Amino acid sequence: MNPAFVYPQSRFEPAALIDLRSNEERTRLSPLALKGFFNIVQRWQLKNDEARELLGSVSSSTYYEIKKNPTNTLDVDRITRVPRWPLQTPPPLAGQTPPGRMG
């Protein structure tokens, strides 16, 4: 193994990676991801259509069900989208909306 990729000797262990294929983990993390998602939607002043696009072009009925019941368990694709949005939207936006900038 390349020594550059070995965890350095210390009394701390690296955190275990989360397996998002596990329904149990997605059930645990989905409410937090959705809370973050709807905070982003509010701060970015997104329209419902733009928010649906960020969730992977979900149907209106699916979006409103998620909005009404933010404790739903997200699938792997949707739960991995949430943490990527803020990282992919570098300021300044040069007059574009965040979804426009990311597209």
Describe this structure as you would to a colleague.
- By secondary structure, the protein is mainly alpha-helical.
- The protein has six helices and no strands.
- It has helices at 23-43, 48-54, 60-68, 76-81, 84-87, 98-102.
- The longest helix is centred in the N-terminal third of the chain and has 21 residues, at 23-43.
- The protein is globular and about 50 Å long.
- The protein starts with 22 loop residues before the first helix and ends with a helix.
- The model has no long low-confidence stretch (mean pLDDT 81).
Layout of secondary structure:
Blueprint: H1 23-43, H2 48-54, H3 60-68, H4 76-81, H5 84-87, H6 98-102
Q: In percent terms, what proportion of residues is strand?
A: under 5%
- Low-confidence stretches are none
Quaternary structure of the protein? single chain
How many distinct beta strands?
Answer: 0
Query: Between the first and last Cα atoms, what is the distance in angstroms?
Result: 38 Å
**What's the total helix number?**
6
Helix-strand topology string: HHHHHH
Helix content estimate:
40-55%
Radius of gyration: 17 Å
Report the structural category: mainly alpha
Q: Based on Cα principal axes, name the global outline.
A: globular
Mean pLDDT: 81
Summarize the structure.
The chain is an all-alpha fold and 103 residues long. The chain has helices spanning 23-43, 48-54, 60-68, 76-81, 84-87, 98-102.
Can you give keywords for this protein?
103 residues; mainly alpha; 6 helices; 50% helix; globular
